[in-house]
Write a structure and sequence with these properties.
The chain has nine helices and seven strands, in the order αααβαβααββαβααββ. The protein is α/β, with parallel strands linked by helices and 212 residues long. α2 crosses α5. The protein binds S-adenosylmethionine (SAM). The site of S-adenosylmethionine has 27 residues, from α1, α2 and β2.
Length: 212
Amino acid sequence: MGFTKYIINQVRYPRGRFGRRVAKRMNKGHASLAVWGLSNIKLRADMKILDVGCGGGANINSFAKIVTNGKVFGIDYSPTSVEVSKEVNKEYLHEGRVEIHHGSVSALPFDENMFDLVSGFEAYYFWPDLINDLKEIYRVLKINGTLLLINEGYKCENKKKRKIVENWAKLGKFKIHSPEEYKDFLARAGFLDIQIFEQKEQGWITSIAKKK
Ligand SMILES: C[S@@+](CC[C@H](N)C(=O)[O-])C[C@H]1O[C@@H](n2cnc3c(N)ncnc32)[C@H](O)[C@@H]1O
């Protein structure tokens, strides 16, 4: 297996000592993407938030800084990611302001109508059954709750960037989508009020969609 393919497989499912490094590296590597993506949405201090595919836990940490009167949950199906997320958020876990679970997007261990916001940062590409997994997120969202997907890889206009992400997608056997395709799969899962934001220079995309 080539090195790039090995890295993509580690990003998909961080494991072992190298996986710990990958999860920590993603915390840094995805920081500017996350800041831009989050600039498209308003957060409130009393929100209940779930971050799906939380990786190294940096986004849980950013949410917890703002959500001082609510609670932030994270879930990831890699035990290594869960371990790193717990380390990165140990103070908040201790205070009971954060909970981190091991599990899959396909069977979220949460009641329906529980969250104001469910986020996925660089995460949805790896979900095994996209429409049904989005429906599972829809189930746990409150009415008027928001789904937020922030991604670096999409069918963007920036040709150089697009070539790079198409190669990642080929090696990792996952799909990337155009803004129109985002609208389509979100609508097929039942979401409404779909908004797409693009950072065309970087080739980044954020989608925001509502449960009504
Ligand atoms: C590319 S990493 C992104 C991590 C983090 N969100 C970030 O932006 O740095 C994808 C994460 O999603 C997790 N993941 C992949 N498939 C999953 C699934 N079916 N359910 C839950 N987590 C999953 C992986 O274990 C990995 O930690």
